Amino acid sequence: MSRPFPYTYISCPCADTPVLDPARKRRSRESPQKPPPERDTEANEGQDDAKQPANKDDEEDEEDEEQTFDPRSPRSNFSLYPPEQLLYCEDCHQIKCPRCITEEIVSWYCPNCLFETPSSMVRSDGGRCGRNCFNCPVCTAPLAVSTIENVTGNGNGQGPWVLSCGYCLWTTLDIGIKFDKPTNIRSQLQKMTDSTTGPAFDARSRQGSRAFGDLKSPLSNFASVDEQANPSERDAEQSTSKEDQTPTPHLGAEARFAALKNFYRTQISETSNSPSDSLGSEFGFSSPGALNRLMSLYASSSRLSGLYGGTKKPKSKPPVMREALTATEGLRIASGDADSALVERIASPDCGWDGVASLIQRTEQSPDVRFVDELLPLPVLLRTKRAKRCKSCKHILVKPETKPQSTRFRIRLIALSYIPLPTLRPLAQPSATSVSGLAPTPDLNALTPLRPYHVLLTLKNHMFDPVRITLATPSVTPGIVATKVTVLCPQFEIGANSDVWDEALQNATAPLSDRITGMRGGEKVPEAGKVWEKGRNWTTVVLEVVPGTLPGSQAEDGQEGDSDIAATFQKDEDVLEIPVFVHMEWDAEAQLEQQNVGKASKPDDLVARELAYWMVLGVGRIQASL
Amino acid sequence: MSTPSNLRHTQTARPTSPHTPQQPSRSGNTSFASTTSPGSTFRNEDDAIIFELGARWLRAGFEGNGTPFCVVGFGPEESRRVGDYRGWIQGAAGNGPLPKPVNAEDWVRDYELWQPDLRKVDLGLLEDKIERLFRETYNQYLLTDAGSSRLVLTLPSLMPHPLLSSLLSTLFSRWRFPSITLLPSATMSATAAGLRSALVVDIGWAETTATGLYEYREITTKRSTRAMKSTQQELGRLLSRLASGEDHETEAKDDGISVGFAYCEEIITRFAWCKPRANDGEQRELELPAHTVLIPSPTNPAQDFVDVPFSRLAEPVETVLLATGTPESELDDEEKSIPQLVYNTLLALPPDARGTCMSRIVFVGGGARIPGLRQRILQEVSSLIERYGWSSIRGKAVERQRQRMEDLRISSQTNGQKPKPTSENGETPAKDEKTDPSQEVPEIDFVEQKLHRQNKDIPVPIQGVLREVESLGAWAGASLVTSLKLRGMVEIEREKFLQHGLAGATRDSEPSVPDRRSGLRAGDRSSWTLAGWA
C-alpha cells in the first residue's frame, strides 16, 4: 500500500517485548499490552479488562505465543520496516529497528549549505542554520539571496538585497525587509525583527538574549545599590506607569518572556534576601554567595537608616513575592479592541483566505503570527549525523563519518547482510498462456477475488554460511478480507554467499537442465513441496494466494447495503498483505569469546544460530467486483 | 557582535547574582554562565528539555527559551509505516472530501494522541505513538541526544493514571532520562502571565477546563466537554451540509461528516471567529452578514472556492462553545457552556480567592486563539454576574423572593439611608452588596488602617473586576520555572520509577512542601509523590 506492489516489510522482533510498565507488572496487568487481534473486539476488550480476572490474563499470555502477526493492526505500523532500514546487532544476534537502538549525534550540519555547525552553536542558533540559508515561510522552498533589481527584473547592481523564493515568488520585500549586504543574513534579520517587534524598547531580540540584558541592566543597578529601597522606587515607577498602562507596548513573545524571567528573578532574590531567612546556617561561609550576602546585609541596613532617616523598617516580616504589575515586568492585559480589529481584518476582502497564515505556516512561526504578512523567513533546520548503538548491549551499529559531505560510514551493520532479502514477484498466469507465448503478469493493483494467483518469493542470502529457512503463514489472512495463502514449499535451504565465480563454475557443469526449465518459464508448473528455483545464494518458492472477497462487493449482490460493514471497512482493507513467519537456522563460526564454549560441544568451531521474525508481503490490491 | 555585548552584560549582572539564594541550590552541573545569561550563547549542555503534551499537539524546547523549538501535531501521517510515502505522493490525507460520511467520533480519532475515554484507547498503540513522536522530535528539532538531560513534562493536572503510566514508562524504558519532572499546565500558564493567582481557562481539544489558582495552588477545577473537538465536529457538519448543497435550515441530525479533517482544521484556524455579545453589538451584526468570504470548496478544496457568509463561520463557536440556543437547564453538568463554566468555577472559589481570580482570567489552549471569543466569554460572564450575583440558587421562587427583598430594600433606602455606594469596581459588586453583607461599607478597622499605612508601598492588587491577562502559555511557563531552577513537586527519578512504577509514589497528595531552599537536599528525596496527579 505504501510502496508500489509487490513489497515486503519486516517486523522488528522488539514489538513482541512490550514496554515494561513496572506498575502494571505489580498489579498483574490491568490493561492488555497486546492489541486485540481483531478490530471489532477492541471495544469489548477494553471494557472486559476492568473485570478481567487474573487467570484471563494468563490465558492471554499463552495466546500471545501463538498469536499470528496482524499487519492490519494499527500497532503494526510502528514495528514494520522496509528490510533495508533495519540494522543487526552482532552481539545480540538480533534485528534492530529504530526503536531498539539509541542514537548519538556525531555532527550537525545545514542540509542547504552543507556547513557543519559546532555543537556549541547549535542551540544558540535555535537548531537552525546561522548563515544565509532560509526557507520560504509560505511554501517552504529554499530562498535565494538576490538584489532587488534582480527580483523586479531591471538591470543589476549592488543595491539592497532581499531573500526571494523561486517557487512562489515571495520575497522579503513583501514584509518590508531589505538587507544591506548579502552575507550574514541571519543576524541582519534578527536585528531588524528586534526593532520592528518592539518599538517601546530600543533593543529586543527574538532570541531574548540581548533583550534580557538590556532590560536587566537598569534593574540590576538598582538591586545592587540598595535592596530595600528598590521596591519602593519601583512602586513609584509603577504608579506612574499605571496611568499610561492602557497603551501597553506590544512585546513579542520572546521579549515578554525575558521580561517575565527578569521579574521573577528579582522577585526571588528580593524576597529571600531578608535577614530573617535563616539561610546562613544552611551553607557555610566558604561560599562567596553567603559572604556577599552578609556584606550586603550590613551595607544595606546602614544605607537604609540613612535613607529613611532612622525609621528602620521592622524586618521581621519577609517581603512577599508579588505578581507582575507592569508591562515591563511581562504583564499583558488583553484588550477587546485587538480582537475585534482582528475579526474585521480577517473578514475584509483584501485579506481573504490567502491573507491568513495556514496552520502549517503558523506552526513554524512565533505563536503570535496570524497573517501571511507577519511571516518571517525560516532559517533552515539543521540535520544531524548520528551514530547508533544497540539499546541492550550498547555496541555501535552505525557510525557515520563526521564530515557532512561524506556519505561513508565507519561502521554499518545493516540487517540485510544477515537476514535474507525477501523479494516478491507475481508469476505469470497460466491461463493466459494460450493467447500468446509470453504470459501476462497479473495486475497487482486489481486482483480478482476468489481466483488463485501464484506469487514467487525469493530469499537472497548475504551471509557466508548456508541458511535453512522455514516459512509459516496463517492459512487465512487476518482482517475482514479472508485470503487463503499456501506456501508450497515451506522448508528450504539457501546457499552461502560465496564467491561469484563459484556460481559461474557450478552453472557451467551441473544445473543445465534447471536453467533450461527456467528459460521456458511459463510451462513450469508450481508443485507442492518443491523449490521453484534455486541459485548460488538465493532460493525461490511459490505462494498460492486466493484473494478473498471484499465485504462491499458482497453487499452488492446479496442483501442491500450493510452499513455496519461499510463503516468498519477501512481505507486499506482491500490491500492483500500476507504475514509470513520466517525462521532461519545456520551454523556460524564461533566468535572469540564463544570459542571455548563452542569447542566443548562442537569441535569444528561452529555454533548453531537461529533467528525468527515476522515478515509482511504486500501482494496487491483486491478488486471490489468479482 | 553579540558575544562582546553578552560579556558586558555578564559583568553588570554579576553583582546581583550572589544575592540570590538560588545559587547554592542550583544543581552542581549548571555553570555560572547559564545563570547570568539566559540568552543562549553560553547554554549548558544539561539544560532541561521541556515538553508540553496535549491530545493534539506537542511543544518541545529547551528551558530558558521563550518559545518552543517546535510544535508538532498528530495525525494519520504520523502513524504511517516507515517508508510509506503516500502522504507526500498524494498530498496529506484529510484535505479532500471523504468518500462517504464518517461518524464525528471516528473522524477525529486518527488525529488525537489519546482520548479522555480510555476504554477505547489501545495503550500499546499509544506507547508506540509516543515513542515515535519523541524520537522524531529529538532527531528533527531538538537535535540533541535523547535521554541525556532532564525532562520536564507539562501536563494537565487531571491525567488518567493509565495514560500517565504509559507515558512515563515509555519514556523511562526507551531512553535513559535521569528524571522526569511533571508540571501542572494550569499553574504554568499563570506563571507565564506573571501571576500568582489566576483563573486559567484552557479551551483545549477534548475539554475546556477552568482552574482556580490561588498563590500557585489549584483550588478548584471544573471542566466541560464544550471544547475545540466538538467545535471542529460542528464545523465539519456545517461544511458537509454546504458540500451537499443542503440548506442550513435542515435539522442537523448526526449524519456524519464528509469533509476532510485537515481541511476543516484549516478553516477553523483561519476563519473561525466569535461575535460580540448580541445586545451591545447589534449594529455591527447587521453589517457583518453582508460579508462573504471565499473559502476552498468543501467538495474540491484544491481548485474551487466558494462564497460563504462570514457570519456562518462564527456559528460553530456560537453553538458549541457558548451553547447559544440551548437553555441552561438543558445542559448536563459536564457540558456547561464556557461562560457558565467560568462563572461556576469562580463561584466555587472562596470570596477572597474569587475576587483575586476574577481579575486575573487567563485564556490558553487552541480555542483561546479564536478572535473575539475571549472577549465574548468575559461579557457573558459579567452578564451572569449581573443577573445572579454570586449565588448558586436559581429558580422562580428564588426570583420572587429576591424581587421582594429588592422592594424592601428600595423602600428602606428611601427612608434616608445613603444612596448605593458606587465603587470604582464597576458593575460587579453592585449586586453583591445586597446578598453579601461582607461587601457593604466597611466599618473603620484600626488594624486594617495600620496595616494599610504600613504597606503603603505595596501596590494594592486589582481585584473584583473582570479582567483578562494574557499568558505566554504553559510551555513558556514551564520553561520559565525550570530556568529559575525551581524544583517541581513531582520529580520522578528513573530508578524509583522503574522499581515500582506509579504505584511507588507516596499516596500523600500534600507532602511536606519543599520550599525553595530544599533544593539543597536534593539527594535525600527518599520518597516521591505525584502530588496533584495522584
From TrEMBL, chain A:
Cellular component terms (Gene Ontology): dynactin complex; stress fiber
Entry keywords, A to Z: Acetylation, Coiled coil, Cytoplasm, Cytoskeleton, Isopeptide bond, Phosphoprotein, Ubl conjugation
Compartment list: Cytoplasm, Cytoskeleton, Microtubule organizing center, Centrosome; Cytoplasm, Cytoskeleton, Stress fiber; Cytoplasm, Myofibril
Basic and acidic residues: bias regions: 29-56, 232-245
InterPro entries, alphabetized: DCTN4
Record region (Disordered): 1-77, 222-249
Keyword Coiled coil: yes
Composition skew (Acidic residues), residue ranges: 57-68
The family this protein is said to belong to: Belongs to the dynactin subunit 4 family.
Name used for this protein in its record: Dynactin subunit 4
Species lineage: Eukaryota, Fungi, Dikarya, Ascomycota, Pezizomycotina
Automatic annotation (TrEMBL), chain B:
InterPro entries recorded: Actin, ATPase_NBD
Compositionally biased spans, kind Polar residues: 1-42, 410-426
Protein name, UniProt field: Actin-related protein 10
Family per similarity comment: Belongs to the actin family.
Organism taxonomic ancestry: Eukaryota, Fungi, Dikarya, Ascomycota, Pezizomycotina
Organism: Penicillium subrubescens
Disordered: annotated segments: 1-43, 407-441, 503-534
Bias (Basic and acidic residues): 507-524
Pfam families per UniProt: Actin
